């Protein structure tokens, strides 16, 4: 009791100081800390008052940062798509407010499950939603009469939820038309340890099931797997076991050093790729609350949070023992607001008669200094994908022709599909080195013989790093005007920094540039089964399947192919489709 009173006194003093000094961000943090103290004393209504004050502060600061960002963009006529200041605010100062607001809302009124969902949603995917809603060609000059500066998207509410269901499934849809599973986990879960006497209980996991008929249910539980391990520890265990299993195979990623391999083997001795128990624990924690509430065949859109973005949901077992993907087409999104923007993009893409072409790139070899392994199956994959999608010769780029200039030129075409089989280390796409003309080669040889240019670094020189790579910022600066469906066939193409805005990686960058959907993997893409999976995916889409259904059918076929030699989740469960379940 004394410690609780002291904590309240400290928080009260913090609010007073921040108010006196007029430091809004500090005031928002202090109100949230005060609410945390009050929640510990079961003073929920008082806590809600402080959380509402914090939320109002974040809204005001957020809109100010948004107006400043839009103003700078228009003045510079630059293609600035990422509001880093607002992202920092949401990731560092504001995120706890929205999480605690949801928990306090449910504690005060257990039936207010939609209000709790909308509270969490307000701090999720904000910048991605903004980038998708404002996606347009870069302005060539400042407009003579600037339009009224927009504010951030309004808070998601019941009307917005109804509009989203209508956009995804149509008006009056049955529950089996589709489902959304939405997760929220306390940001402190990364530090949670197994419970001990006198220790703080683990952070809570909130999850909501939203069916196409508008019904919403909520589940609240500790953020730990049933065996007592924190969920995050279980997720990273799966990732490390899979990386160790993939190590000796031909794959599309950077090779691990022997020291790193030894460290993983020491942590997972005799694991030998056995992740069944880990997947079962994750399924029990994340999916079991909703077993029996979703009809088989219902498309599911997952909205993970924090490290849950790294969960291979498609591989989590159902009560039958079959993986989730065996019963449901699956997609993912960063938030409900982002999902709404992707549904609107679906509709826009459907109206584009010129959206017909395909770009297929295969870069099995990179420059020697990149020290990346060969991808021998990428070429046959590219040929099969080009045939399935009807890619024209000028947009089929393979081997030495898979250069950055050729890629950028092809991306200007009215494309329906973009397929990139290349290495993707550290959120870069590594392409073929630019070929020198005979004269350039002779000049370079002569210069080397005379010792010219030693110690100099020329990013514009043929074959330089900048000439053969495309990073996240460069992708976001693109304008994919016909909203193509993008496939990234390299290892870890779907990874990135974890944020309130989702995963800050290549898929998000392609969405910001105009993509309709992005298929990418969370871990090592083993070369041969990856090629087979992606061939089947495109063949299914060519027959009229939606992206989610095409992926599901490709996975099920791969699991049974060649006497089921690709049945292990390593070979297929890492591929995640960001988008909607619509055709």
Structure, explained:
With 583 residues, the protein is of the alpha/beta class. Helices cover 44% and strands 12% of the residues. It has 19 helices and 15 strands. It has helices at residues 2-21, 24-40, 44-76, 84-108, 113-121, 126-133, 158-169, 231-246, 258-267, 276-286, 324-327, 336-350, 378-389, 404-410, 438-449, 472-476, 506-513, 527-542, 547-564; strands at 179-185, 204-211, 216-222, 300-303, 330-332, 357-362, 396-398, 415-421, 428-430, 469-471, 485-488, 496-499, 502-505, 517-521, 575-578. The strands form four sheets. The chain has a six-stranded mixed beta sheet with strand order 7-6-8-11-14-15, sandwiched between helices. It has a five-stranded mixed beta sheet with strand order 3-2-1-4-5. Helix 6 (126-133) packs parallel to helix 12 (336-350). The longest helix is centred in the first third of the chain and has 33 residues, at 44-76.
Write a short abstract of this structure.
The protein is an alpha/beta fold and 583 residues long. The protein has helices at residues 2-21, 24-40, 44-76, 84-108, 113-121, 126-133, 158-169, 231-246, 258-267, 276-286, 324-327, 336-350, 378-389, 404-410, 438-449, 472-476, 506-513, 527-542, 547-564, and strands at 179-185, 204-211, 216-222, 300-303, 330-332, 357-362, 396-398, 415-421, 428-430, 469-471, 485-488, 496-499, 502-505, 517-521, 575-578. Strand 6, helix 13 and strand 7 form a beta-alpha-beta unit.
């Amino acid at each position: 009791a004394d410690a609780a009173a002291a904590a309240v006194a400290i928080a009260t003093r913090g609010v007073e100081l921040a108010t006196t000094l007029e430091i809004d961000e500090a005031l928002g943090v202090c109100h949230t800390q005060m609410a945390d103290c009050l929640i510990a004393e079961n003073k929920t209504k008082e806590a809600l008052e402080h959380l509402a004050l914090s939320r109002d502060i974040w809204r005001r600061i957020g809109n100010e940062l948004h107006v400043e960002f839009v103003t700078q963009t228009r003045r510079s006529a630059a293609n600035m798509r990422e509001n880093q200041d607002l992202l920092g605010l949401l990731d560092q100062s504001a995120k706890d407010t929205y999480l605690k607001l949801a928990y306090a809302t449910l504690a005060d009124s257990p039936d207010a499950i939609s209000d709790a969902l909308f509270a969490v949603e307000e701090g999720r995917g904000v910048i991605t939603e903004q980038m998708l809603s404002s996606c347009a060609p870069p302005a060539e000059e400042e407009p003579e009469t600037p339009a009224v500066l927009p504010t951030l998207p309004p808070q998601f509410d019941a009307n917005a939820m109804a509009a989203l269901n209508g956009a995804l499934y149509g008006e009056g849809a049955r529950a089996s038309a589709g489902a959304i599973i939405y997760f929220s986990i306390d940001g402190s879960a990364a530090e949670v340890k197994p419970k001990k006497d006198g220790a703080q209980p683990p952070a809570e996991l909130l999850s909501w099931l939203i069916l196409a008929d508008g019904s919403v249910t909520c589940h609240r539980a500790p953020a730990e797997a049933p065996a007592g391990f924190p969920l995050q520890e279980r997720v990273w265990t799966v990732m490390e076991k899979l990386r160790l299993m993939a190590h000796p195979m031909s794959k599309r990623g950077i090779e691990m050093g022997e020291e790193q391999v030894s460290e993983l083997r020491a942590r997972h001795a005799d694991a030998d790729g056995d992740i069944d128990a880990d997947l079962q624990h994750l399924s029990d924690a994340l999916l079991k609350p909703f077993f029996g509430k979703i009809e088989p065949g219902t498309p599911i859109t997952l909205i993970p949070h924090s490290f849950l973005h790294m969960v291979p949901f498609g591989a989590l077992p159902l009560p039958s023992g079959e993986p989730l993907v065996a019963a449901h087409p699956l997609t993912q999104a960063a938030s409900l607001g982002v999902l709404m923007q992707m549904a609107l993009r679906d509709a826009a893409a459907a109206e584009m008669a010129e959206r017909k072409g395909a770009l297929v790139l295969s870069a099995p070899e990179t420059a020697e200094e990149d020290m990346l392994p060969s991808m021998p199956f990428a070429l046959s994959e590219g040929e099969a994908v080009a045939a399935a999608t009807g890619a024209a010769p000028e947009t089929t780029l393979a081997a030495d022709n898979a250069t950055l200039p050729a890629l950028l030129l092809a991306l200007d075409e009215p494309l329906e599909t973009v397929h990139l089989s290349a290495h993707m280390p550290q959120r870069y796409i590594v392409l073929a080195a630019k070929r020198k003309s005979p004269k350039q080669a002779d000049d370079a040889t002569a210069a080397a013989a005379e010792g010219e240019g030693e110690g100099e670094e020329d990013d514009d020189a043929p074959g330089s790093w900048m000439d053969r790579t495309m990073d996240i910022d460069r992708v976001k600066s693109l304008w994919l005007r016909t909203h193509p469906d993008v496939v990234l066939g390299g290892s870890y193409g779907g990874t990135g920094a974890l944020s309130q805005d989702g995963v800050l990686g290549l898929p998000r960058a392609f969405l910001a540039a105009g993509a309709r959907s992005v298929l990418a993997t969370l871990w090592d893409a083993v070369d041969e089964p990856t090629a087979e999976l992606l061939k089947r995916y495109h063949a299914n889409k060519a027959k009229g399947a939606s992206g989610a259904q095409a992926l599901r059918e490709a996975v099920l076929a791969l699991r049974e192919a060649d006497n089921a030699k690709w049945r292990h989740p390593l070979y297929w469960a890492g591929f995640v489709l960001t988008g909607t379940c619509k055709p």
